[in-house]
């Protein structure tokens, strides 16, 4: 990261501290971390650092092991550890609904982008039309609650 003049809201890590120390023609203003916002700011920082590390590695099992090791470092329980190294929970349906789907050769309709990246929920820049995502999300619901 090359520091240029502007407004920042960055954690001062070793890289940024080094750049601050090398500035000769600029002044730096530092503010204390706000206790009320610190958990959100630190979580975001850790998330970005962890995501970058996980993207560098092609091994899913090694990535899961790293995440589990991180969780173990701060958790008193094993309940949060990833136990299925190949799958994630996608749906829970009644046995009756499962039989209906088998008979009709249908599956539950799911949004193309998935809920994590759906622009409906996250504002994520998707090329999939929003109305299409909304329709699929609504169709994926077994019941509507108003």
Please tag this protein with its features.
single chain, 146 residues, mainly alpha, 0% strand, elongated
Protein model, in words:
- It is a single chain.
- It contains seven helices and no strands.
- It has a domain at 95-140.
- It starts with 13 loop residues before the first helix and ends in a 6-residue tail after the last helix.
- The chain has 146 residues and is mostly helical.
Q: Given the helix and strand composition, which structural class is it?
A: mainly alpha
Strand content: under 5%
Mean pLDDT: 83
Oligomer: single chain
Question: Quick gist of this model?
Answer:
This protein is mainly α. It has helices spanning 14-22, 35-56, 60-74, 95-104, 114-117, 119-122, 130-140.
Topology record:
Elements: H1 14-22, H2 35-56, H3 60-74, H4 95-104, H5 114-117, H6 119-122, H7 130-140
């Amino acid at each position: 990261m090359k520091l240029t003049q502007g407004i920042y809201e960055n954690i001062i890590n070793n890289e940024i501290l080094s750049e601050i120390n090398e500035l000769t023609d600029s002044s730096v203003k530092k503010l204390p971390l706000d206790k009320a916002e610190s958990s959100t700011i630190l979580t975001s920082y850790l998330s970005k650092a962890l995501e970058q590390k996980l993207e560098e590695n092609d091994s899913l099992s090694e990535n899961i092991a790293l995440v589990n090791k991180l969780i173990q470092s701060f958790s008193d329980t094993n309940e949060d550890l990833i136990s299925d190294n190949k799958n994630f929970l996608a749906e829970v349906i009644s046995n009756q609904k499962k039989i209906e789907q088998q008979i009709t050769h249908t599956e539950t309709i799911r949004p193309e982008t998935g809920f994590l990246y759906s622009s409906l929920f996250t504002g994520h820049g998707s090329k999939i039309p929003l109305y299409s995502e909304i329709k699929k999300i609504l169709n994926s619901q077994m019941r509507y609650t108003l």
